[in-house]
Design a protein that fits this description.
Number of helices: 5
Distance between the termini: 166 Å
Oligomer: single chain
Radius of gyration: 67 Å
Order of helices and strands: HHHHH
């Protein structure tokens, strides 16, 4: 007998002490307490014979092992989830930093574009002002020339009228002869 079996039988004997306090002889088939004790001892013996405590122990150990493996798996899943979360948080920070850099660069580019647009606008205004001044000067020169031409035309007409009133036929022939001699001198 093993130590467990001996301890179990001894414990049963101690638990059967109240049954021994019954009236009459204890070891008798007429004593129901004795019959119950024998049936109980036989039941425990059958359990030990078929190794039920070992099977129960093995089932409990298997269940304990299963629970431990589930706990280990849950722990590893939790660690993996935490690592994944840390990875996503790191990626989120990197993306946020990159987005901040893009926004900062966009602001710098926008300011540079605005400055360039202001410079282009100023140059365009200067070119247009210069073109307008050139047009004004050209219009002014054309107006002055037109006024001069009109003044010359008016002066020539007035001189013709004055000369026509004062000139005689002899004076006209003399002027024609002088003009021919001047042309002849210039051509030869």
């Amino acid at each position: 007998m093993t130590m467990k079996t001996l301890a179990s039988v001894l414990a049963l004997g101690v638990m059967a002490t109240p049954a021994m306090a019954a009236k009459g002889p204890f070891v008798s088939l007429a004593n129901t307490d004795f019959i119950v004790l024998i049936a109980f001892i036989l039941f425990i013996g059958v359990l030990f014979y078929f190794k039920v405590p070992g099977m129960l122990s093995k089932m409990l150990d298997d269940r304990s092992t299963g629970i431990q493996s589930e706990l280990d798996e849950a722990r590893s899943l939790r660690d993996e989830a935490q690592a994944l979360l840390a990875s996503y948080e790191r990626k989120h920070r990197e993306v946020q930093e990159q987005a901040d850099k893009i926004v900062a660069q966009a602001k710098i580019d926008a300011e540079a574009a605005a400055d360039q647009a202001r410079e282009d606008l100023a140059r365009s205004i200067e070119r247009r002002m210069a073109a307008a001044e050139d047009q004004i000067a050209s219009a002014q020169a054309a107006a002055i020339k037109e006024v001069r031409d009109t003044a010359v035309t008016v002066a020539i007409a007035a001189a013709r009228d004055v000369i026509a009133k004062q000139m005689t036929a002899a004076d006209a022939n003399k002027l024609v002869d002088d003009a021919i001699s001047q042309v002849d001198a210039k051509l030869h």
